[in-house]
Amino acid sequence: MHTKRKALILKISIPALILGTCIGTEYFFNTKAAEVSEKPVVIAEELANTANNKPLQIINKQEYKNIPGLLQVLDFSEDDEVILSIGMTKEELKKKYKDFKLDKLTDKEKKDFYNDQYGNVYKVNLNTMEKIALKDGGGYIASRSIKAGISPQGKNMDYLLNGSSKIYNIKTGEIKSYGQNHKDNWIGGIWSKDGNFIINYVEGGLEVYNVNENKVEMIQIDRDNFYISTIPGFFSEDGKDVYFIGEEKGNKGDERRQGIYKVNVNTKKIDSVMLLPYVDRTKRNFKESCIPSAVYEILNGGKSILLEAYINGESGTYMYDVENKKFNRVISHINSKEGDFASPFWISPDKTKVVYVNRAKENDKECWNLYVARINENNFTNRICIAKDIELGDSVPNWAHWSNDGKKVIFYKADTKVEDRVAYSDKNIINVITIK
């Protein structure tokens, strides 16, 4: 994107993830934030394998090829069971939608097309390839109806059916109504790490749903000096404290700064946890500082934050030391011909390991590799590459998943091609790698 304004937006190509311009914000918050230096301390410290950590090893690799209509790997359920989004194949879609041109379809036809492409939710045993459709009454649960996704440990899934928000227990098949209904265009939120709460954005604040008690807590927040980012980026361990990406308007010109804040659900008190420098994007030659991704992790009992960020014009993946207010670059990037790029990451359930994507040069060409590393306080150690030169299908949040015991990584590869602005895959491979 050729522009002098470097606002922050995630531009996802297939399969690349490239960083481009900046996102504005629109939701006000009212709170006071702690002071922050306009020159954050950034350190680049890559630790070698330490004596206290055994080297990570790949002990098994398995491939499951060409499941017809496979579009997304949603998660592990248990053992070797996965939750998949399976729709029509390319041939089936072209047969049903003859002379297909996306821009010539009516809104209803487009909706029907995407519903057919994304299909329904299935539980699949990778050993036997037995496929079981998840149903609500006599009807299938559509993949596009899923909102917050699959809960940690693969127990529950939330979805929207005719304006009614529901929770599906993947293990038992039990369905219960959500304590709060939503419109069909509801985007959805995130699960707390304990799987007992769903956190959503609502106008003027947050909605925290207690799954076990079927109760909704609404947190209204004044709109005076602070905003919730258009990429709100919620995180919560247990529904008691909710982290979010927010933005504060400064006193000089149009300066603003982003950061990660924490609100206590009971007291409604808001605290700043990590703050970036102020940026006035109306000025020429400004240096960008912002958070381009809604995905981040709170680690080490709240002492560390793993996130993608721009800091004074430098993009990277950082581990932020909350106590010492230092950013440690944990993933080094090559100088890519594509420009700045992100390295999406996924944390193991026990928070001791991370799998991440990074751009590399293999045989004189740029490609995407997949890595696993240990998390050692504010660093990554014992890094190993588990897959080279991969073309990752699917949307970014579902590129990779950990098994519930943290011993296996699952990722989905596809030879994705775009025809008339629609992505198809003639081949797809589910990869399961066991790590010790």
TrEMBL record:
It comes from Clostridium tetani. It comes from the Bacteria. This is Uncharacterized protein.
